[in-house]
């Protein structure tokens, strides 16, 4: 099997909002085409990480090759590229989409179009995809397929009259989906005789095989034993193995135009494989590389520190391992007076941050403290130079700064009408600028420009709480805008606490400062003396709370029989003091930092 | 004022673990038994455990003996006498030894006072706890205020010395009401009073009530006000505080308890008793089995009920010395801390606490908590010992 007839290949992805049934549909397609036996099926086959299955999200792109004998009597090869559904991973989405010719747009027939659906479907349209609308969960009593079809036409502008009605859960309509893929999506184009030209779609580290590279062949043939060259990095590797996912990795002799599969080639690190790079034949290279992707840039930063300083090396090793598989996550060492040794880490967004944190804690069994997330600011200095600021603690002297610019996003929020008022107020409070507001059936769709800085600070949680969880939200980075931003410091008993300093908009500083002082007042235990807690901009105090001195704590009864117990308590107390951080005379328990830095309150 | 010495004497603590009923605030090792307690069997066991301790310490002159509980006044006088005889057989008892016994102030128990005196007890400590009947009922006490004061009079007529306990910071108690009650109490107390702030201890009935929101005790601010009133009223009436919760006419301090606070040597006999024995191997901390019947069978089997005995590290001795010594108005000798702990106190911390006005150093170099330091002593000790 050197090459399949290219007209019998279909490469497609599935675009959907979380919970609308993308993974379940993928499971059904795999089952229906017999790629896995009943015994091998487990829920959400493609989401291989625990965290993916639990949260119902896909983080890494995955692919599976299905063989489908269609009603026209021919057997087709269907390559499903499963893409992440979240904006943080928009980059992964875009490169997966670039490897396909069409998409299934899956919409929950009872919920309708959500903010995330929109962002992803626009990306698919940008990639010139043919799109087949699929309405899922039509078995639910609340399903309103006609209304949702209208919505798709109205909001996205797609013809939904031929939408496929299915229930991925019961298996209803799966055959229709397969037929639609074959009949409505175009086959790939490519020249088997031309020099090899393949796109590096993704890569990851496999404990047994080393780096595995996911490729889409555009022209030519990829064979085991040939030497390939990465056109971007210039490195050449002999190919050890060529294969496809069914969804288990299965070796094949070669991959031809339009096919999707993997190769291994003694590549040491994922970092050696630039996603979007063009792979060609070292001896007969193609003339032009494929149009590449722009490299990903971390958008949100935060400090991650081990609770126990002794875990620092373990944390470093764990970060190294995660980075092997996720080149979009960056880290560099950082020291903090409050939290000791740790790392300043960069993420694609808040979900990415949360996932990395959770994986570090869960897969590597580490107890971590994370500082409040901050965005990347651009500073224009009075001497004309520009620099990026990743950590508020590194803020240069204000007299040397001519201007601070912050990243803005364009947010799309879909919400039931009754929560619209509160959501508009939330966006207004967060310095938002309304761009658009219209209705899609009973749901309102608002588009706002917002500073990302305001979004990383508990925006999701507020949005969830004001809409009782019904609003959906998505965003994309738009531009940097200069802003009246100031560094707010927190002082405990007159000593600045580096881990708590942050950049805020001047108009928001007082409210944020007051909230932080109030929180710390409850978190720092009483001492033998009174402790002022202050928020300051430069030398100006903008908020203040006082922890009163301890008034009475002495044990009433302490005789010969009590001393052992009292000593053990004292030993525990002393042990606890070791875990406290000293700021001048004040001892702040690490738990207080953890709680103060939590973004959700 | 008694002279603080490093060699504070040798004391014997004897624990009688039974009570007629369990008070809802009490977390002591006390047990209610509905069948008759075999006192002879206990006497024999006490004697064996005394012998075992004497073997550990070698010869000692006993300067104080304390019968605590539980309710030692449930013992027959003959039992008390037999136990004291055992102490005298294995160690020697100093002619001026203080021999105290805790008693409930009920009429039944007051009838036994003469017998205890005859057996050798020369001081009683009565658990009066409150001088109004409503609070006594709430505290689960089985006596009225009048009955308690009658028992106090009998004690005054029977023993050379007596003291009684009161509990303050009771639910809804105001500083003014407490001051009045305290003045009345001082009228009945000749030389010594123990005044304890009510503490909600884990595992007690009161803890459950507080958790269920059915009992509220004064907050720390009111607790502090009540504490301050206590110090002020007692000092004005000739019973200054000599320890956090103990007040005495100068010279009438409880010598046995001083032994604990001065970190002296004592043997702990009976169920759940703690001892600190000075042995060749170092300072030995002993703890006996808590359950009365388990202790009894352990003693009958092994000759003692000690379930844990541990030579204390210098660090632990330093901690215990600070925990106990700083409770006393006389304070501590930093030189003795250094000798026990194997390191001096952290000079920086000492100076900072002095600067805060919580600790004071006298001309002889002794360190003591100030008036401001006593109410926050636990935090002070935690700071000083770090």
Automatic annotation (TrEMBL), chain A:
Binding site residues for GTP: 19-24, 136-139
EC nos: 3.6.5.n1
Enzyme class: hydrolase
Alphabetical list of Pfam families matching this protein: EFG_C, GTP_EFTU, GTP_EFTU_D2, LepA_C
One GO cellular component term: plasma membrane
Any single biological process term in GO: positive regulation of translation
Catalysed reaction equations from the record: GTP + H2O = GDP + phosphate + H(+)
Transmembrane feature ranges: none
Record carries keyword Membrane: yes
Family label: Belongs to the GTP-binding elongation factor family. LepA subfamily. Belongs to the TRAFAC class translation factor GTPase superfamily. Classic translation factor GTPase family. LepA subfamily.
Protein name, per record: Elongation factor 4
Primary gene name: lepA
Automatic annotation (TrEMBL), chain B:
Organism of origin: Chelatococcus composti
Name under which the protein is recorded: Heme chaperone HemW
Ranges where the Radical SAM core domain occurs: 1-240
GO molecular-function term, one example from the UniProt record: 4 iron, 4 sulfur cluster binding
Cofactor(s) this protein requires: [4Fe-4S] cluster
GO cellular component: cytoplasm
Function: Probably acts as a heme chaperone, transferring heme to an unknown acceptor. Binds one molecule of heme per monomer, possibly covalently. Binds 1 [4Fe-4S] cluster. The cluster is coordinated with 3 cysteines and an exchangeable S-adenosyl-L-methionine.
InterPro entries in the cross-refs: Aldolase_TIM (IPR013785), Coproporphyrinogen-III_oxidase (IPR034505), Elp3/MiaA/NifB-like_rSAM (IPR006638), HemN_C (IPR010723), HemW-like (IPR004559), rSAM (IPR007197), rSAM_sf (IPR058240)
Main localisation: cytoplasm
